[in-house]
Design brief:
The protein is an alpha+beta fold. It folds into two domains: about 130 residues, PAS domain (Beta-Lactamase), CATH 3.30.450.20; about 160 residues, Reverse transcriptase/Diguanylate cyclase domain (Alpha-Beta Plaits). Helices cover about 40% and strands about 20% of the residues. A five-stranded antiparallel beta sheet has the order 2-1-5-4-3, sandwiched between helices. A five-stranded mixed beta sheet has the order 7-8-6-11-12, sandwiched between helices. Helix 6 crosses helix 7. The longest helix has 21 residues.
Length: about 325
């Protein structure tokens, strides 16, 4: 009986081929892991060329950056941005240490891009570190837009009166001091206007504090809308406000104050007991050659305000001379 021959034994690949296959599998595995990272990691050469992009899988925070590979940042970014980024790369390489930067960037500033990430400009933190033995860096990107928004909100809460939208007293005085400094450095005029709501206590007593708050809120909106971008507007007390007006003399301040007074006088508030009309009294002055700080003009504007109240309210008084007005009656 003839026995059929055995099939040939399967050939065994050389050990070197097994090592190559294993290394390729491990590399693919490693890239799959890195590609799944939510935050992108970019490899950038000294010349600004994007050598590789890993991660960045979180489309809620990042656009896909893979199209950048092989391109130079000089070709895909506005000049101001690529010069800034390239300088960071050079600092990291030349100093051999971590560089941390924060920057604002939108997908519209990058070409090419898939525009498959968040809309609008985003804030990012870049952590940039040199690669050992290579003339290149790794640039880890973290979207910090939420953190920036929180910081901005906290900053606003610390500076702005929540009810009226005007600066709070502390911040207003700081900004007024800054205007005062600019007044001397640039020889610019500076005027100060102070005002408050006439008979505000009666408004609270008759119509309630909620209505009083509505009056202050609307007043803040109307006044802010009537000011210039450089003017500084603050709430300095309960129903008391002040305005710093750069490049403005006493006569110009009076014109502005009268315009604001008229705008407030035209307001009408509907209440359960009928229409409520509100007026304000204002005092204005300008910085003089002997003023060494903002206390003097604030005091003179206050005195002019008291004079406006003494004369019947709903008007503007200006202190433009050297003599302090004769105020012997304090009114609310």
């Amino acid at each position: 009986m003839n026995t059929p021959p055995l099939p040939p034994a399967p050939s065994t690949p050389p050990a070197s081929r097994l090592g190559e296959a294993d290394a390729a599998a491990q590399l693919a595995y490693l890239r799959a892991i890195l590609g799944s990272l939510p935050d992108p990691i970019m490899v950038i050469g000294r010349d600004g060329r994007y050598l590789d992009v890993l991660g960045g899988a979180d489309r809620g925070n990042y656009d896909a950056a893979a199209p950048l590979v092989g391109l130079h940042m000089q070709d895909v970014l506005p000049e101001e941005k690529w010069r800034f980024f390239l300088d960071v790369v050079h600092r990291a390489l030349d100093k051999g240490c971590l560089q941390t930067v924060e920057y604002r960037l939108s997908a519209d500033e990058v070409e090419p891009t898939d525009n498959d990430g968040p809309s609008g400009a985003q804030w990012f933190q870049g952590r940039v570190y040199p690669i050992a033995g290579r003339d290149a860096v790794v640039w880890l990107v973290v979207n910090i837009s939420a953190q920036k928004a929180l910081e901005e909100r906290l900053k606003r809460l610390s500076e702005v009166d929540d009810l009226t939208g005007a600066l709070n007293r502390r911040c207003f005085l700081e900004r007024l001091e800054a205007l005062f400094g600019a007044h001397y450095r640039r020889s610019r005029s500076l005027a100060v206007i102070v005002f408050d709501v006439d008979h505000f206590k009666s408004i609270n007593d008759i119509h309630g504090h909620a209505q009083g708050d509505r009056v202050l809120k609307r007043l803040g909106e109307v006044v802010a809308a009537g000011l210039r971008a450089d003017d500084v507007f603050g709430r300095t007390g309960g129903e008391e406000f002040a305005i710093g007006c750069p490049a403005t003399d006493a006569q110009e301040a009076e014109i502005l104050a009268e315009r604001l007074r008229a705008a407030v006088e035209n307001l009408v508030f509907q209440t359960p007991s009928g229409e409520l009309h509100v007026t304000v009294s204002l005092g204005a002055t300008q910085l003089g050659p002997d003023d060494k700080d903002v206390d003097g003009p604030l005091h003179r504007a206050d005195q002019a305000l008291y004079l406006a109240k003494r004369r019947g309210r709903n008007q503007t008084c200006v202190w433009a001379g050297d003599e302090e007005p004769d105020i012997d009656l304090v009114v609310d």
